[in-house]
Backbone:
């Protein structure tokens, strides 16, 4: 290992798979940005920071040193801060600050936890501390950081504001890259490296279940489109976290499939919503009636929503099924709550779909070059179906990822 | 093995090709259902067999063939063929013909799969396709509200079943629909799993409380969709799951049987009473579908061999005559462009074959001997009497028998209003033509099927189809001799015909009504069938019940959505609000602290000096 001692990386199937996924979404978001960001200022900064967000997210997958992980984590937070406030209106700046402060505050608490690990093991290198036991205090401190980054109740409050201000491609990347980092850290630390007492995992499961229900419930009664998507993300991240916390083959594989499924479909949904916003200037449900304007956008949206809801043959089905199996092996009540959360998902996506695509339009629809981005929505919709079929049909790629965890 | 994958994949692939090349999708649907019929008949040669593609996780693909699944596969394929044949030249959007073969392939997959997760995959996939199919509306109608209702109700029952199946997988270790031997239902977890899966089966078959999407869809989707979904696919799959659940996976206890029979009886009563008062033929048939699902559920709930055989037989009968009824009323709608009973009448003269098919299928539905519905209902009654599992059994028997009588009542209403009553003025009978060959042939074939399944009930369906499927022998059923009864009935009819021909009936004279020189408007004297039983909702107790029903009090969907919405309000408006407030309080504290600090640092030297002195004072105080 040459270079500074803390620069330690390791390649595994999970990191490779997620790299492909993150790169794909970054590419799509860049394509979308080329069209939608054109008329704004600060373009150079935008692209640099967008790539910084992607780069920090991707390197995070390979990093095996606590200092390095923390540094990348903070770079990512910094990038989010700059991008959320991109439009520079007063409320955007306030939202960006809110985002940054909560994430930074939680990260500092996490840093204390990481420091505690160092005092315990004398090293920052994750590969050298495999199997060590961890003082629960430090696990809980690190959990604070993870919950904030992965927008889990009660540290989710930044996400609705961030989504409201961020440009659409940034929101897509937040949903599919940044917010997964917390979950990946959870997997790396608490599943791959350390083993912790059962009640820690149970606590996390309860928090995650609360996140699923509160996120889903709030998404059902909110009217602003982007806030609905934010609470939907909060709820979906809860599913992933509950899978990882439940552990076992099913829980972890379910969580990983869930990351793939959610990271494929949420950006597509954002792009679709972005097209609607751009052309109608609508921010709230009701009176949009976008269905007849672009007849293929509605079905594309519905396919992506079907994946998030968890209908076969989309990848979301297997993800949800395995997470539920994993949770059920630990606790029956939490599994029932998880299924209830799935029904929330079905309901709020029906409501969102009706609100955007059904009914009569009362808004003026203007043409926009962003409409061409419907191609991205359709590609992602097809990919979610193909990914679902890939889970059933034997293929080396998915199996490789699974084998690294079995 | 290859045969099974071909059987499942052929229709799906044909459907996908049809999605790309819309022009030929109709013919692709027809060809693929014919191929499926051929393949599924071929499956009989493989019996009994179990086929595995791969055993490693994540999804073990295991298929299991037995007579039940293969017979039902053949039935599904044949009926789908008839549906496509019937619909092929109707004004239905091409998307219909894309979804139908895909739905067929998926249902065959569900029928043949043995592994529970694979089954769940097909079952849920079917929900997605059913949603798409229900979104294909009639011209000028928006079906999306009905489709969403279906999606949510069926989705809820599917998620319940998912939880139940996962529960069986993880805690009891049942991973297959066809385990080597059934387990007793003893532990609470097993009972919970059983009830959750039961919800899936009842939801699919269209039983209470998951039934309300069917009537809502009835007059917004094409008749062919109604013939395909609630009356063929859902009945077959729901019955299949319930039979597997009750006979192969578990040995149910009497209390579970009671639960199932209560659900079934409620379903019968709701279906029948609501069917009576519908002003629209399609809606009547939709409620009728629900009522007949109730018979199947009650028959299965008896847990008696005759009851299960009767339920299976009733399922076959039901898909035969109910599909025929949907077809015929669909033809009427296509020919006249109307669906409300009030606007129809007198079509027997101009659509004789359709009328005949409707008559036979309708009487079979009502259980008029010797047609098919009679025998299966008879078996179900007998099972209720013989099993006597609970002191409530007379109530179930009354529900079933009354249901049968009232079924006859609403069928007569439909028959009269559509085909026999005086036509309204604006309906020009001369311009209405009989349906084309593919329009009248499938219902006629099904009507003949209803006759065969009734007259030769023992020798054809029971001995050749039902008995081989079931493990136990079906005992002789009372003194009912359908062939003899038919002969006697025919003699009776012949005598009636002779009396008609040689009696006074033909010599009656028709003359114009004359009252005081006034012209009587013929429309005023017309009695459309809608007035039948219209006094029913005015009976004291029933009045209130019907009023409640109209307000949606019996609609489980409203309750379910209400529960989730109120939970959402609690989560969104209360908990979320409190969390946000908490953060705002923290921010406010910081702001106040900052404000105090900045007030203190005012830039005036004496102020800083006094702070210094105060600090020194505290320092002394502590260090002392």
Residues:
């Amino acid at each position: 290992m040459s270079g500074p001692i803390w620069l330690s990386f390791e390649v595994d199937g999970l990191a490779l798979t997620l790299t492909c996924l993150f790169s794909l979404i970054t590419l799509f978001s860049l394509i979308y940005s080329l069209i939608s960001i054109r008329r704004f200022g600060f373009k150079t900064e935008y692209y640099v920071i967008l790539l910084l967000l992607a780069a920090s997210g991707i390197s995070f997958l390979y990093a095996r040193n606590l200092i390095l992980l923390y540094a990348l984590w903070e770079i990512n937070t910094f990038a989010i801060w700059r991008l959320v406030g991109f439009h520079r209106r007063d409320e955007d700046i306030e939202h960006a600050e809110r985002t940054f402060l909560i994430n930074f505050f939680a990260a500092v608490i996490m840093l204390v936890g990481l420091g505690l690990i160092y005092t315990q093991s004398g090293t920052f290198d994750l590969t050298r501390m495999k199997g060590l036991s961890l003082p629960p205090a430090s696990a809980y401190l690190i959990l604070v950081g993870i919950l904030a980054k992965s927008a889990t109740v009660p540290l989710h409050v930044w996400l609705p504001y961030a989504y409201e201000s961020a440009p659409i491609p940034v929101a897509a990347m937040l949903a599919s890259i940044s917010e997964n980092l917390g979950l990946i850290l959870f997997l790396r630390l608490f599943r791959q490296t350390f083993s912790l007492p059962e009640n820690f995992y149970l606590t996390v499961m309860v928090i995650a279940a609360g996140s699923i229900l509160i996120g889903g419930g709030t998404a059902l009664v909110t009217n602003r489109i982007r806030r609905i998507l934010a609470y939907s993300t909060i709820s979906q991240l809860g599913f992933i976290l509950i899978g990882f916390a439940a552990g076992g083959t099913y829980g972890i594989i379910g969580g990983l499939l869930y990351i793939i499924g959610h990271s494929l479909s949420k950006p597509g949904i954002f792009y679709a919503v972005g097209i609607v916003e751009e052309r109608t200037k609508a921010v709230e449900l009701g009176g949009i009636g976008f269905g007849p304007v672009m007849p293929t956008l509605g079905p594309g949206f519905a396919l992506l929503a079907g994946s998030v809801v968890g209908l076969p043959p989309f990848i979301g089905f297997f993800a949800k099924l395995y997470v539920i199996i994993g949770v059920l092996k630990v606790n029956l009540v939490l599994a029932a709550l998880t299924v209830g959360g799935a029904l929330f998902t079905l309901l709020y996506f029906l409501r969102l779909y009706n609100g955007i695509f059904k009914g009569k339009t009362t808004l003026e629809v203007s043409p926009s070059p962003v409409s061409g981005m419907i191609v991205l929505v359709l590609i992602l919709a097809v990919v979610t179906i193909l990914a679902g079929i890939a889970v059933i049909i034997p293929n080396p790629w998915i199996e490789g990822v699974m084998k690294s965890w079995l | 093995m290859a045969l099974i994958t071909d059987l499942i994949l052929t229709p799906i692939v044909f459907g996908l090709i049809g999605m790309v090349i819309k022009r030929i999708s109709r013919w692709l649907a027809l060809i693929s259902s014919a191929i499926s019929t051929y393949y599924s008949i071929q499956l009989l040669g493989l019996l009994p067999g179990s086929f595995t593609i791969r055993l490693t996780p994540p999804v073990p693909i295991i298929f299991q063939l037995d007579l039940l699944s293969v017979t039902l596969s053949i039935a599904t394929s044949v009926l789908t063929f008839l549906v496509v044949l019937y619909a092929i030249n109707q004004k239905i959007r091409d998307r219909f013909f894309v979804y139908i073969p895909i739905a067929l392939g998926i249902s065959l997959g569900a029928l043949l799969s043995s592994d529970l997760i694979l089954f769940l995959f097909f079952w849920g996939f079917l929900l997605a396709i059913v949603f798409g199919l229900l979104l294909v509306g009639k011209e000028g109608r928006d079906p999306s509200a009905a489709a969403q209702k279906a999606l949510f109700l069926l989705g809820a029952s599917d998620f319940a079943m998912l939880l139940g199946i996962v529960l069986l997988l993880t805690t009891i270790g049942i991973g297959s629909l066809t385990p080597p031997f059934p387990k007793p239902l003893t532990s609470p977890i097993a009972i919970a799993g059983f009830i959750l899966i039961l919800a899936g089966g009842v939801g699919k078959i269209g039983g209470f409380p998951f039934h309300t999407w069917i009537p809502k869809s009835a007059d917004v989707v094409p008749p062919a969709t109604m013939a395909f979904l609630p009356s063929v696919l859902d009945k077959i799959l729901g019955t299949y799951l319930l039979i597997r659940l009750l006979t192969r996976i578990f040995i149910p206890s009497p209390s579970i049987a009671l639960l199932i029979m209560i659900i079934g009886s409620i379903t019968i009563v709701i279906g029948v009473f609501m069917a009576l008062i519908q002003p629209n033929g399609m809606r009547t048939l939709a409620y009728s579908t629900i009522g007949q699902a109730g018979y199947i559920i009650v028959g299965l709930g008896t847990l008696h061999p005759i009851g299960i055989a009767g339920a299976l037989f009733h399922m076959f009968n039901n898909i035969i005559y109910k599909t025929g009824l949907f077809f015929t009323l669909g033809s009427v709608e296509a020919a006249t462009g109307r669906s409300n009973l009030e606007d129809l009448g007198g079509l027997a003269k101009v659509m004789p074959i359709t009328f005949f098919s409707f008559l036979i299928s309708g009487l079979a539905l009502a259980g008029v001997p010797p047609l098919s519905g009679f025998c299966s209902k008879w078996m179900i009654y007998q099972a209720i009497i013989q099993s006597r599992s609970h002191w409530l059994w007379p109530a179930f028997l009354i529900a079933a028998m009354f249901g049968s009588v009232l079924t006859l009542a609403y069928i007569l209403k439909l028959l009269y209003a559509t085909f026999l009553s005086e036509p309204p003025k604006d309906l020009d009978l001369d311009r209405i033509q009989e349906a084309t060959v593919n329009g009248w042939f499938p219902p006629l074939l099904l009507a003949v099927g209803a006759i065969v399944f009734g007259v030769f009930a023992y020798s054809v369906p029971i001995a050749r189809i039902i008995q081989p499927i079931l493990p136990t022998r079906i005992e002789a059923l009372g003194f009912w001799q359908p062939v003899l009864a038919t002969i006697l009935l025919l003699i009776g009819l012949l005598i009636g015909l002779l009396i008609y021909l040689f009696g006074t009936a033909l010599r009656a004279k028709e003359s114009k009504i004359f009252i005081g020189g006034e012209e009587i408007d013929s429309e005023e004297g017309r009695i459309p069938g809608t007035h039948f039983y219209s006094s029913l909702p005015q009976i004291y107790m029933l009045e209130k019940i019907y009023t409640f029903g109209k307000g949606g009090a019996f609609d489980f969907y409203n309750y379910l959505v209400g529960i989730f919405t109120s939970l959402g309000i609690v989560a969104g408006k209360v908990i979320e609000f409190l969390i946000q407030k908490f953060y705002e309080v923290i921010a406010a504290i910081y702001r106040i602290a900052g404000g105090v600090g900045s007030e203190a640092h005012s830039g005036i030297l004496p102020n800083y000096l006094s702070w210094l002195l105060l600090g020194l004072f505290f320092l002394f105080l502590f260090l002392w």
